[in-house]
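Hi! If you just cloned this repository, the fastest way to understand the data is to look at a raw example. We've pasted two of them here, unedited. The first protein comes first, obviously.
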Amino acid sequence: MPMPLPVRTFDLLSIGSGPAGEKAALVAAQAGKRVGIIEMASRPGGAMVNTGTIASKALRETALVASAMRRRPIPGIAATIVHGLSMQRFMARRNLVQMEEHDRIEDGLEDAGVAILHGRGVIVDPHTVRIEHADGTHEYVHSEFILIATGSSPARANTVDFTHPSIVDADGILELEVMPRSLVIVGAGVIGSEYASIFAELGVEVTLIEPRNALMRFLDEEIRAVLTRGMEDVGIQILFGRAAAKVEGLGARAVTTLCDGARIESDCVLWSLGRNGNTRGLGLEAAGVHADERGIIKVDAHYCTACPSIFAAGDVIGFPALASTSMEQGRVAACHMFDISFLTKLADTVPIGIYTIPAVGSVGLSEEDAINGKRDVVIGRAHYRNNARGRMLGDDQGLLKAVFDGRTHALLGVSVVGEDATELVHYGQLAIHSGHGIEHMLQACFNYPSLTELYKTAAYDAKVNLAARATRLAA
């Protein structure tokens, strides 16, 4: 039976309206192209808005407000969090931010003339997609280019009983009805560590289980140590080198059995070990595109797949799987599709923001990376406890660590752990891109009191370290 002729045609058709799909659509539409987005969910934004970035970070801000009196105590005033609090009431702010972000995306796409096509997209051939609607009907659409921006989903182990209401993954943790008194988190990656910090801040008894011997090994070792201490100081029990063999329900609670036979009971278990690309049932094989065992699609530097008319961007292509990089990947892909000169590649310096408590931000090379790359390295450190703004914020553990080239004095990388770390790294990003370093930071005048002053302190520290090294060499 011949396939029905497509009713609508586009220049670009994005399957998914997350950060990659949205930004690619806007770039193409603003260049005068006919653009459509296929979206299964009732509202746009993907995991960035609906289950991940916006949702968890809004919850984090609420948790920080709720715990502010403990972190910055006022004599004679006490504040406590009521146990058994409704999660939905507590997350009212999160819901408001999500609705506002939904409206922003929808208004932006509508103003640009992008068509939103609701349903599930399945690739039929290199230029045709079948849209399967919720009512059982379907239609075919044609496009010169197709962008796969379907995102990712939490990986689920078959040793975990996800049918039990007290056992959830990262998509389900925010749908709990009541704030748990105790929480076990399996996996101390970015998502697991962020949620551990958030719930511990709210007075929840948190146990974090990590099979490896450290948190997030891609971080600078010294910064990672400060983060680990900060999480332990707020009461998080971190079990390194331990793995979960099984997670099952136990009445209204859950029990986690470790590989060594130890059992941990808790009100809730969050399984947070990895994510898989959303490529199952997408019809990739019809266009000669393949995904690996984790559902990750391989692309070239332009985000083009093995099929010249099909591109992919965002979480579905794997690391770094950040909302910020997904946006840029979508823009770059659209520019290469239509020879738009706006943006031809991802930035050379991409910052990483981890919204733990304390937060972590990094950009460029860590000390370990620079040394392994045979760079001549000098380190400059600045501690929050020696910064007026840091003391005002009650952060006596925070650290900014700058990695400079020992010969040129240019900044190679910066890692920060502490208050506003995810904002502070952007000055470092600009300095790396501009080739600035120690002398520039020493000459710059920063507001007082401000955390940005940490860069000047780190530059002074690096200069002292350079002088000490020169003295040693002379001797």
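Ok, and the second one:
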Amino acid sequence: MEYFIWDASPIAFSVGPFSIFWYGILFASSILLGLEFMKWAFKLEGKNEETIEPLFLYTVIGIVVGARLGHCLFYDPAFYLAHPLKILAVWEGGLASHGGGLGAIIALYFGAKKYKMDFLWLIDRLIVPTALFGFLVRMGNFMNSEIVGIKTDVSWAIIFSRVDIFPRHPAQLYEAFSYLAIFILLFGIYKFSKAAVKPGFMFGIFLTLVFSARFLIEFVKVRQADYDTSFLLMSTGQALSIPFFLVGLGSVFWSLRKS
């Protein structure tokens, strides 16, 4: 069987000694799109637009710091605790979505408190572009030929030639298109039903669907933790997804009871 061979360069273009990577372009694009969405939502609902940029800055810092600490502490704690300065070396790669999600929630909580905004109102809106952020970041991982799936012989398998010669599940694409579908669903709910849903509902739907998808896709993904997780009977990514999934369910039920 012939499989699709993926050998794209992770570098979009170079200017002298500097290289611009696809991952960076997609990451930055997702941030800008998220900012534009929040500007539109604030204007649509008559909120103070002057608070958008500082609140968004809180969120971006929370994502980056949380994602980096999540990678270091969840996936390779022995190395980073032995070399703590390496935690700052973000340019070497290593961001964990679970840590990024937790960091964003914490940062947004403090930002909402400072600017006297309704935390649940804010987070219900912010999760819409966050789902798009997940899609674009996973496409960046695909361009980097990283976070690959396990070996397989399914007809849609891909050979990541920068990794090895074996056909593998395109786990990044599974996640990317799952998040894109979740974005379309959440955008539809916000656009057509925002007045009918109670605070916390969209946030709960986001957590429930995103981390259900993440849990299932982990079955076909190469394990990323640099330590033995057999005692968990699941991967680190699956174990970290369970609390987010439960919080999501709780948020959905709580909002439904309110309504």
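That's it. A detail worth noticing about the second one: Residues 67 and 95 are 5 Å apart (CA to CA).
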